[in-house]
Structures are given as C-alpha cells and as structure tokens.
Amino acid sequence: MILQIKDVKTAVVGASGYAGAELVELLTRHQSINSIELLVSESSQVLGQCFSDVFPRWKGVCDTAFQAVNSDWINQHAAELDVVFLATPHAASVKLVKEFTEHEVIIFDLSGGFRLKQPELYDEYYGFTHQLPEVLQQAVYGSPEWEAESLKDTNLIAVPGCYPTASLLGLKPITSNHLHDESSLITVNGISGVSGAGRQANLATSFNEVSLTPYNILKHRHQPEMSQAVQADVIFNPHLAPFKRGLLATTTLKIKEGVAAADIDAVYKNAYQSQPLIRFQKDWPKIDNVTGTPFADIHWQFDEKQRVLVVSCAIDNLMKGAASQAVQCLNLRLGLSSEFGLLSNVEVNHND
Ligand SMILES: NC(=O)C1=CN([C@@H]2O[C@H](COP(=O)(O)OP(=O)(O)OC[C@H]3O[C@@H](n4cnc5c(N)ncnc54)[C@H](OP(=O)(O)O)[C@@H]3O)[C@@H](O)[C@H]2O)C=CC1
Ligand SMILES: CC(=O)N[C@@H](CCC(=O)OP(=O)(O)O)C(=O)O
Q1: What pLDDT shows up at residue 346?
Q2: What is the pTM of this model?
Q3: Strands, DSSP E only, in the chain?
C-alpha cells in the first residue's frame, strides 16, 4: 500500500491503556497525522468518556471520545483509515489483525502477537494457540535501528517488546558482527517499572505490594523473542521494581578470542552513529535520564583478558519500549527519518 507523508488517518485500539495513551499523545503532535480514532473494547469502562476525562493532563490537547471496536466498526470505518495501531493484549491483537487485514490498512501491533516466527512458541510462552500462523512470516519485526529497509514496504509491523528493545540495542552490534563466543550463553538481567504490567488493577502490581523481585524466570515470553533476534541462546532474568516507568537491561556475554576493545567500540559506533535516539553515555545509564523520552542510553565495558562484555541499556518502557518506537516505525514506513516528530521537546546528544 502506498502511504502519503501528509494527512495520515489513524486509529489507536487500546487508547485507554498505558501504551495506547502514550501513543495518542505522540500522534496528536505528529505533523503527518490528520486524524486519530480512539478505540477500546466493547466492555470498556471508559465508553461514554473522552480521552481527557480519563487522562486529564491532555485536556484541551486531545478531547476525542472513545469508541468500541467490533466487526461493525471495522467494516464501516477501516476503509477510511491509512494506519491502525494495536496497543491491545496479545490475543486481542491477533483477532484484530485478522479483521483489519481484510481492508487496506497498515497495522502496527505493539503487542507480542506477531513478534515470533515459530507458531508453537505461542502455546509455550503466551498460553494460546496462534490463529494466524501463516501471517507470522509476513510480519516485519520493527526494530527501527535494524530493520529500516524492511519497514519501508510492509503492511504488518510487530513493534518489539520493551525488554527486547533494550537488550537487543546492546546485543545486536555484537551478534550481527559475529563477535560473540557462540559456545557460551548470553545473560540478560532486566528491571522494569510497574507500568510495564499495564493499567489494569492487579494486586501483584499495586504500589504497596511491589518490592524488587525477579519474576517469570526461565519462562518469560521475551526470552524467545531475544533469542530469535540474535540467533543465539539467551537467558533472560526479568525483575519488577517499585517505580512507575523506565526499564534497564544489563547483558553479559563472552566475546570471541582475538577481539580487542577497539573492535567492540567500533561496532557500536558503526551501528548507531546516525541514530540520534541512541545515546552512548560515559558511565552506566540511569532510568531517570530516559523516562518520558524516546532515547535509549547505552554504556559498555569490555575486559579483554577475560573476554567478557557487559553492556547496559536504559529506556522508558512506554516510549522507546512501546509508543515512541511505534512512531519510529511509522516514520520509516512513511519514508521519513525515524526520529521525526520525537525530538521537538528534548535535547539531542549525538554519538561522536
Ligand atoms: N506497558 C508496557 O510497558 C508495554 C506494553 N506493550 C504492549 O502493549 C499492549 C498494551 O499494553 P498496556 O498499555 O500496558 O496495557 P493496558 O492494560 O494498560 O491497556 C490495554 C488496552 O487494551 C484495551 N483492550 C483490552 N482488551 C481489548 C479488546 N479485546 N479489544 C480492544 N481493546 C482492548 C484496553 O481497553 P479497555 O479495557 O478500556 O477496553 C486498554 O486500552 C500489550 O500487548 C503490551 O504487551 C508493549 C511494550 C511495553
Ligand atoms: C513489569 C511487567 O510486567 N512487564 C511486562 C512486560 C511489558 C509488556 O507489556 O510486554 P511487551 O513489551 O511484550 O508488550 C511483563 O513482564 O510481562
């Protein structure tokens, strides 16, 4: 489908959730966007309200009413849309993709519903049998820094998960250049704030209950997503922490013999020197420096003697881990630079 740069008509399904609301805010001030429909489930508690009733900080900025998404709505309105964003639970996204693909609309799915290529992994890691296994092969895994070319010409984009985004930004420069020791494991330790668990009330993620703890060890759905992206075995240790937003992934891996610290520095520089949203920090990254921003902050240290590399990346889970990354994907699909519209309120610090 040919997409014009101007006057793009969009819908955000899941606009009452954390990732969806963040996306609505970004799209509202994106110069290429003409209109944004806000959709929620048929049983949503926000039906009858507008966006700024639920998120009062956007009063006067986005006062659009929520609508219920169902087959009737899709049949009546999808033809008028250029783009739909799905910020919905994984299984709901699969069902919505099935319905929206009957119309000519480009789909950006923020859930994990189309990130994995092997359908059987959905039974194992997501707890449901995938209803569109053949479509998994068509979906582009939308990492803006690594898949810019594939993103230019696809109608289904699987926006990467939050933990995989931070881990893969640290890992891909190494694995894509085959600098890692293929006989040893890659270990990712991730820590996320509570907004990673979504807006739905849940005792385990309510403020008084949360204390720093590992969870879903050896069974988190992001483990196969990371392994698929680097074509190597990854062990992923997720942790939940008592802060609102932000995510840090620290990765440890063994490097091949004969690789020097200068080689490691060079692959990072080559990968990201033209990517203003990726910032190399002089010291270990901090979550407070990226919350509310589209940046990923990276720092690494390589011990040549032990051949051990430790790389750490901090992002905002709702921005670079979800909404701003989806906008980067949209920008590339439109033929714009990936950071278009995302840097107007923040300072840029290029990697030089
Ligand atoms: N939170 C995060 O850090 C990240 C989240 N994501 C992914 O984004 C998606 C949304 O996450 P998040 O915003 O945290 O979740 P929330 O629980 O905060 O929001 C979920 C949204 O989906 C809507 N929804 C639920 N079921 C349906 C349905 N059957 N049809 C249409 N809409 C539905 C909800 O609306 P209502 O209940 O009002 O109907 C709500 O707007 C998930 O797939 C998640 O994995 C990705 C990266 C990071
Ligand atoms: C703290 C917390 O619960 N985080 C979520 C991950 C965030 C998310 O929604 O996952 P996606 O990036 O795959 O969409 C989790 O561990 O399931």
Answers
A1: 52
A2: 0.96
A3: 8-13, 33-40, 66-68, 83-86, 106-109, 140-141, 156-158, 186-192, 213-214, 234-240, 247-254, 278-280, 296-303, 308-315
Average pLDDT score, the chain: 96
Please give the C-alpha separations between residue 191 and each of 38, 78, 172, 199, 284, in angstroms, as whole numbers: 31, 38, 20, 18, 14
CA of 17 to the centre of ligand 1 (A): 5
Residue corresponding to tokens 């955000």: 12
Q: What is the C-alpha end-to-end distance of the chain, expressed in Å?
A: 38
What are the distances in angstroms from CA 192 to CA 28, 85, 129, 162, 166?
27, 23, 27, 9, 11
The per-type count for the chain, helices as H runs and strands as E runs, is 11, 14
Which atom number of ligand 1 is nearest to the Cα of residue 90? 43
Which tokens hold the place of 164? Answer: 């995989």
pLDDT > 70: what percent of the chain?
98
Question: If you average pLDDT over residues 26-39, what whole number do you get?
Answer: 97
218 sits in the region (left: phi over 0; alpha: psi -120 to 50; else beta) called left
**Could you give all domains of the chain from N- to C-terminal order, each with its CATH number?**
8-159+320-333 (3.40.50.720), 162-317 (3.30.360.10)
Both tokens of 40, joined, read 């929620």
Strand-by-strand arrangement of the 247-254 sheet? 213-214, 234-240, 186-192, 247-254, 308-315, 296-303, 278-280
Measured distance CA(37)–CA(13) in Å, rounded: 8
CA distance 265 to 287: 23
pLDDT at residue 213 tops 50 = yes
CA of 88 to the centre of ligand 1 (A): 4
Q: Which of 50, 62, 162, 313 is catalytic?
A: 162
CA 237 / ligand 2 centre spacing (Å)? 13
